[in-house]
Amino acid sequence: MNARPVITLRLGDWSELAAQATPIRFQVFVDEQQVPADMELDEFDALSCHALALAGEEAVGTGRLLPDGHIGRMAVRADWRGQGVGAALLQALIDEAERRGMRRLVLSAQTHALGFYTRFGFVPEGEVYDEAGLPHQMMLRQS
Ligand SMILES: CC(C)(COP(=O)(O)OP(=O)(O)OC[C@H]1O[C@@H](n2cnc3c(N)ncnc32)[C@H](O)[C@@H]1OP(=O)(O)O)[C@@H](O)C(=O)NCCC(=O)NCCS
Predict the structure, then answer these.
(1) Which of 35, 36, 131, 135 is most buried, by CB atoms within 10 Å?
(2) Is the full-model pTM beyond 0.85?
(3) What is the CATH T-level fold of the domain 8-103, as seen in this structure?
């Protein structure tokens, strides 16, 4: 079995991490998943805590935590998936939320990723709905 790569996590605000996080989000959501480009960056970026995963100097994944406990914009570059990067990002955001005393976390999951989030204690809530042309499901995590 191959050893997992060493991944370094950085947490910071948008002014610190936008330069490295934005290209990942455009590559994954706009280029790969055809989310409209004008929906990708929004007013919540400036309000959020962002996580960035680095393999050496290379930024390979990102995600964000909003002040109201929403986790979103989880994206790992396609050639880095399946190696624990997404798990490291999500755990870092959950840890940061808990550090801030947020007990109730919410996310709008693309349905293909339900299994990924379930591993971290998120539970589906309600019906599947359309968001940016993709099927989504609300998920909750209470600690
Ligand atoms: C979803 C995503 C962030 C997962 O990142 P990743 O780096 O591939 O995930 P990891 O390698 O850390 O996987 C962690 C665990 O979840 C599992 N997993 C990963 N993706 C999964 C999926 N889609 N469904 C079920 N399980 C999944 C892995 O097998 C792994 O399990 P293990 O710990 O038993 O080995 C990544 O696939 C991605 O960026 N997808 C495109 C963008 C996207 O759809 N984002 C989600 C928006 S809601």
Answers:
(1) 35
(2) yes
(3) Aminopeptidase (3.40.630)
